[in-house]
TrEMBL record:
GO MF terms, alphabetically ordered: 5'-nucleotidase activity; endonuclease activity; nucleotide binding; UDP-sugar diphosphatase activity
Protein name: Endonuclease YhcR
Record has Cell membrane as a keyword: no
Keywords, in A-Z order: Endonuclease, Hydrolase, Nuclease, Nucleotide-binding, Signal
């Protein structure tokens, strides 16, 4: 049987003996320094393994400026066991962090797990996220998966983000400049056109350098149609994450690409909220739950690492693959507050990543701290786009007397959720506006907090249009629909059952609607039906109620099919309603106070 190439090399070394090796060593010493690069004569072989640095982040959501309030902080575990909140994030600091991390690493890749754009603050969202794509180009992002928010404006707009061109309605924003599109590939392996059956963007890409080849497969969560407005996913199919990744892992393997990383816009929930707590304390992957766990367990051993997202959580976990080999599953929170640094040891002989119990990839999350120098090119970019946005962004919209937390609240009933629901009820209760009797708001649509401390020159307690936009960036149109009392009860039960059983989504409710949430029970029983009242009167299952909500919820989004009603009236946008409420109910002399909770009574 003929010897394999590497066996022949070993035989040659054995035959040479000590004298032969000494002769080769002398020849090499006499060669010019660059001779080994020319491919001629005898020369030392490159090291069998090379360390490849994988830097990753996820869920940026167009946060070019440092996020305000609790949205711009991470929890860090201290040596004495206590925790502290550390301000983090901002593209100026993320760029500095990544550029510093790359130093000394000739093999370095920067990848992302989706939601780079969408649900963005005004500085990016006002310009259809062109500023964020420009920033990511400057950042030298190598590849990203699509996330659900990449579909907020539909597949055609996503294609423009990739390929460039000015916006079809708003045109070009800067004189003499055409939007160039992303320098990096957006991967959408599991998103196919209903007409063609083919992926709408590349399913995978292969990073290459000096013979090192690493494949990247990108997918978004299969449930994307449940968390995006119907218009955004029209004409698209979203396939299973595991089946898709395994399919393309086989295809890459057939092409000789043995090292593969999956970029998955789906995630999990860690036991701890401190970014630097171990996920593996009680065994590999013991510190995480949620959809990504089963996905990780089902993905082919051909895939060597999983970069995840969507849940905005921080974790670095070891979840064994189906063959029992250790495999990293990572997520870097959101808004550019963290980045993950993973070392992949690439074996030049097998072209694969070394993954054994002794030599598995090493990975850690790092804070994007704000006490480091700012990246000058990002400062210039933010200032340039900020100048264009300033006339709108800095306009005073309302006044508050203290922080009103949305994202920053862990309570089922959030102060900012109460405020938004009240604004929607007020804006749509008049007979000619829809006659709404109550309003419901999805918690995921609250993208930030209202922060008392001034973000610029507007003064403390002033809510600017830009800050209001950051809270409600989708510009969803408000709907008022007829729902029976039975549908309303079912909808409240769907918060904690069905699609939301594993990850409850507690709707924010307008004043007058009250009920008890019993967390000692499970499933739909957590909602105590006989406590559901409107203005003190029990909800009548046979009666019809007029209910205000954004078009996303009215379409059954977020796992609430019971909210699809009849006799629909379309009103103003959620942002316009919110802004109008702030203007009508606050002033410099009488600022708005945080709402007092009490609509949802929680039993634990």
């Amino acid at each position: 049987m003929p010897a394999k190439p590497h066996m022949k090399r070993a035989a040659t070394r054995l035959w040479a003996g000590a004298a032969g090796l000494a002769t080769v060593g002398a020849l090499v010493a006499a060669m010019p320094a660059d001779a080994h690069d020319r491919g001629h004569g005898h020369h030392p072989k490159p090291d069998r393994t090379v360390d490849v640095q994988l830097l990753s982040f996820n869920d940026l959501h167009g946060n070019l400026e440092p996020p305000a309030g609790s949205a711009g902080a991470v929890t860090e575990r201290q040596a004495d066991g206590t925790t502290k909140s550390v301000p983090a994030g901002g593209m100026e600091y993320l760029a500095t962090s990544l550029r510093t991390a790359r130093q000394g690493h000739p093999y370095s890749i920067t990848a992302a797990g989706g939601d780079m754009i969408g649900a963005s603050p005004l500085l990016s969202g006002m310009f259809h996220d062109e500023p964020t794509i420009e920033a990511l180009n400057k950042l030298k992002l190598d590849v990203t998966a699509v996330g659900n928010h990449e579909f907020d404006e539909g597949a055609t707009e996503l294609a423009r983000m990739q390929n460039g061109g000015c916006h079809p309605t708003d045109g070009c924003y800067e004189k003499g400049k055409t939007f160039p599109g992303a320098d990096f590939p957006y991967l959408a392996a599991n998103v196919t056109s209903e007409k063609t059956g083919k992926p709408i963007l590349k399913p995978y890409t292969v990073w290459k350098k000096n013979g090192v080849k690493i494949g990247f497969i990108g997918v978004t969560l299969k449930g994307t149609p449940n968390v995006v407005t119907a218009s955004g996913v029209k004409g698209l199919n979203f396939a299973d994450e595991i089946e898709t990744i395994n399919k393309y892992a086989k295809e890459l393997d057939r092409q000789g690409v043995k090292s593969i990383v999956a970029l998955i816009h789906e995630g999990g929930m860690p036991v701890s909220n401190a970014y630097n707590d171990s996920c593996d304390t009680n065994g590999p992957g013991s510190g995480i739950s949620g959809p990504i766990v089963d996905i990780a367990k089902g993905i082919s051993p051909k895939v060597d690492a999983l970069v995840t997202g969507h849940t905005h959580q921080a974790y670095v976990c070891t979840v064994p693959d189906p063959a029992g080999n250790p495999r990293m599953v990572t997520s870097a929170a959101s808004f550019g507050k963290l980045y993950t640094d993973t070392t992949l040891t690439y074996d030049r002989r097998t072209n694969d990543i070394v993954r054994t119990a002794v030599r598995s990839p090493k990975s850690a999350n790092h804070i994007v701290r704000r006490d480091q120098p700012k990246a000058a090119d990002m400062t210039e970019l933010i200032a340039r786009w900020g100048k264009l946005a300033a006339p709108v962004a800095n306009r005073p919209q309302g006044f508050i007397s203290a922080d009103i937390n949305g994202r920053g609240s862990d309570a089922p009933e959030k102060p900012l959720g109460d405020l938004i629901a009240d604004a929607q009820l007020a804006g749509l209760s008049a007979p000619d506006k829809g006659g709404a009797q109550l309003a419901l708001m999805n918690p995921g649509g609250i993208r930030s907090d209202l922060v008392y401390k001034a973000s610029g020159a507007e003064g403390d307690g002033v809510v600017t249009y830009g800050e209001a936009f950051t809270v409600q960036p989708f510009t969803n149109m408000m709907n008022v629909v007829d729902l029976t009392g039975a549908q309303l009860i079912t909808a409240l039960q769907q918060q904690v059952s069905g699609a939301n059983a594993a990850d409850p989504k507690i709707l924010q409710i307008s004043k007058g609607l009250t009920y008890t949430l019993d967390l000692t029970k499970s499933g739909a029983a957590r909602v105590v039906v006989d406590t559901i009242k409107l203005n003190g009167v029990a909800i009548d299952p046979t009666k019809t109620y007029r209910v205000a909500m954004n078009e996303f919820l009215a379409g059954g989004g977020d796992g609430f099919p019971a909210l699809v009603g009849t006799n629909k009236l379309v009103g103003a946008s959620d942002l316009d309603v919110f802004d109008a409420y702030l203007a009508a109910n606050s002033s410099a002399s009488t600022p708005m106070a945080p709402p007092v909770p009490g609509r949802i009574t929680v039993r634990k």
